[in-house]
Amino acid sequence: MAFVPDLDSLESSSLNEETFYGPDCLCLQKKPRLDSEVTSPGVDIQVTVTKGHPARTFRQAAVLVVAVTKLQKRPVHKDFADSDLGGFLEDIFEPISFQQIEDTYARAPVYRYTRSQSFDILDIDHKCFVLESPTQLVALHLQGPSARWKVKLNIALYRPRSSQGGPGTGRMPVALGIKGYQLYMSCVMSGTEPVLQLEEADIRKDIESMELTRFIFFRLDSPGEGTTRFESAAFPGWFICTSLQPRQPVGITNQPDQVNIATYKLSGR
Fold first, then answer.
1. Distant-in-sequence, close-in-space partners of 222: CB < 8 Å, separation ≥ 6
2. SS3 94
3. Most buried residue, 36, 128, 166, 230, by CB count within 10 Å?
4. Which residue ranges does the record assign to the Interleukin-1 propeptide domain (predicted)?
5. Which has the closest alpha carbon to 213: 228, 192, 233, 230?
6. d(CA 264, CA 222)
7. Contact 173, 218 (CB under 8 A)
8. Where in the chain is the domain with CATH 2.80.10.50?
9. Tens of pLDDT along 28-50?
10. Residue (of 148, 152, 151, 130) closest to 248 by Cα position
């Protein structure tokens, strides 16, 4: 009567590669030396192949059954690859979707400081600039001894990074300071429109941040008329202006020379 092995008992007994069930014995025996042995790569199981021994057929069948059972329950080992790492991370973390956004970011303007020059300034109505309070600049007519109250402009000259300004374009970047003070005109937003103000600062240096462009104005010269205008670099189209009425604050406008004066004459050094 042939003996049929119980596969569950084979599996539960943790049969290893060195033991097997003999055809005439129900207990585990040491594996005899066989004609040839082949080791399956990457799997901790040995498969035995014999030649010309019919008596060993039962043993071969038992070994193969156990080997197949182990192969079904144990994963095949392989070298760890980058793709394995990707799959491993996907199992741990929630997938994140990325959207490619194409855009361009403008770099902050760069103005290289070169030197400073001092000038007297008059609007085309011959009004002078006067510092009426620590931070208030007004324009009015001065004659005789009162002319000593007029202020001189200390104009800091800059060299632009690109063709946005320069001698060849008639748009020279400058900063307008009050000589004898650390006060410079700046153009900032207030409410819905920009305003002109005086700030205490020392900007006789390179301007490399967008924030400091509030101090920069483009000097627009008209050589044929000997006049100039000052346009805000932070707010293009807005120009430093004076009122048609005397003793009014110096301001800024986007309607030059219409209800105000935005054209000046510079003289002296």
1. 228
2. coil
3. 230
4. 1-94
5. 233
6. 10
7. yes
8. 111-267
9. 444 445 444 444 445 455 555 55
10. 130
